[in-house]
Specification:
Blueprint (H helix, E strand, L loop, with lengths): L8 E7 L6 H10 L7 E4 L3 E6 L6 H9 L3 H11 L4 E6 L1 H5 L5 E2 L10 E6 L3 H9 L4
Antiparallel strand pairs: 1-3, 1-6, 2-3, 4-5, 4-6
């Protein structure tokens, strides 16, 4: 299994619709990263969580492996890669209950997805780590 990448900037962003509880949106976002060091920015219509700790993606890493969706995640990450930046769209209702569910399009998450962006000097290492098969 590939080593954990040395560094990455992780940002999770979710919009807040007028009918939603900002606290629940924040809980959904936080459930994807656990207790890792992060900064939280809240506004009236958006929640953003930022971290420089690659370990904040441990839940995503583990669930991609445990739920056997590594290959789909790898294809999606390669398709959405822009330079050193990777993007995953995650279903916010699933995130609220601690489950990582990848969306192909924003419409697959009725209230809008959580946008997970990872920027790294070595995005291929991040993709390999997130989607590696167990040895």
């Amino acid at each position: 299994m590939p080593d954990e990448p040395r560094s990455a900037q992780i940002t999770l962003t979710a919009t807040i619709s007028p009918s939603e509880s900002p606290e629940k949106v924040l809980l959904a976002v936080k459930s994807l990263v656990g207790d890792c060091a992060s900064e939280i920015h809240e506004s009236v219509d958006e929640v953003r969580l930022a971290s420089n700790d690659i370990r904040s993606l441990r839940l995503v890493h583990d669930q991609l492996r445990d739920r056997r969706i590594r290959d789909a995640a790898r294809r999606f990450l390669l398709k959405t890669r822009e330079g050193n930046s990777l993007l995953l769209l995650l279903n916010r209702q699933a995130a609220y209950v601690g489950t990582v569910a990848i969306c192909s399009t924003p419409e697959e998450s009725p209230l809008g997805p959580i946008f997970l962006r990872v920027t790294s000097d070595d995005p291929d290492a991040v993709i390999d780590w997130l989607t590696a098969h167990q040895s």
